[in-house]
Structures are given as structure tokens and as C-alpha cells.
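Chapter review: from sequence to fold.
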Amino acid sequence: MAKGKDKRIGKYYRFSFDGCTFKTDGIMLASNANYTLIKTFTDFVPDGFFLLRNKKIHFEIDDHAKMAAKILRLKKYTITNEPEFPFDTLDRMLKYITDKYKLMGLHMKNVEAFDVVAYKRLINDRYHFRELTTLAKWRYELELTEEECRFISFDTNYINGLKLVTPF
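The C-alpha cell string follows.
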């Protein structure tokens, strides 16, 4: 995992976003001018990653984040065991996620809901994805701009469960 000299790396934060009620929290693993990668947790157990577009994003260490950080420290969680991630262009990151994890959650305007997708390709500045139903059936192709790819989750328990029954 890219662990530059950014003092925020390795700390537990609560993330919020302008224009939506959705909040998420986790440990910041990497960040650049465009994106932030976090490790997410459910009940203090690792539950995948979130790649967040840095537009209109806020993060803070609130009481919940302090408690979660303390519990994870006591459980001896460390970011040094996280896999390397190609923090580069969105196309390269999406290719990596698809090659390694097959599926991802694409959270668009209504961040509380998301589509489970597989990344296909970039054509004329538009990202193409195959969309999967909740019953693991391929439905249609989505075509989005980079601006619309605001929140991407992968390697979560839910998505990994769907991978077990999805025909690739």
C-alpha cells in the first residue's frame, strides 16, 4: 500500500460529502489530489475498501473514529498488511480492481444505494461497466463520466458473496 509521508495515512476518520447524507468511516490508506483510498470496517472487522473522489469530501476524527481507532489498535490491526494499490488514473485503478477483485460497488448520486458492476473499458472519456442485479444476473451496461464515479467500494463481504454466484 502506498504509505507516503502524508500524516493522515493510517488514521481512522469519519468521511462526509457535500450534498448527501451518506457518511462512511475507515482508515486512510492513500490519498492524492483526486482520490482517497480507505479501508472500511463493519463491527470493527475489515470489510473492504472505498475509493473516494476528493470533490466535496470532508473527514474528521470524531468520537466514533476515536473509539474505532482504539479498538483496532487493541486488535493489533495495521495497514502494513494491506495490498499495494496502483494509485494512478481512474482507468488504471478500475482495471486493477476488476483484475484482482472482479466486482465493485459503484455509488452514484444516491450514495446509500449502489450498483454492483464490473469495469469494461474507457471510451472517449466515458467509463463503461456491466451492471449486476442483486440476484447475480448481468443486466445492462452503464456509461459514466469520471465525475459520476464518485464512490467505489470493493472487496466487501456483500460483493464477495455475490462473486460466488456470478457467472463471469
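Two observations follow directly from the output. The chain has a mean pLDDT of 90. The CA atoms of residues 20 and 89 lie 25 Å apart.
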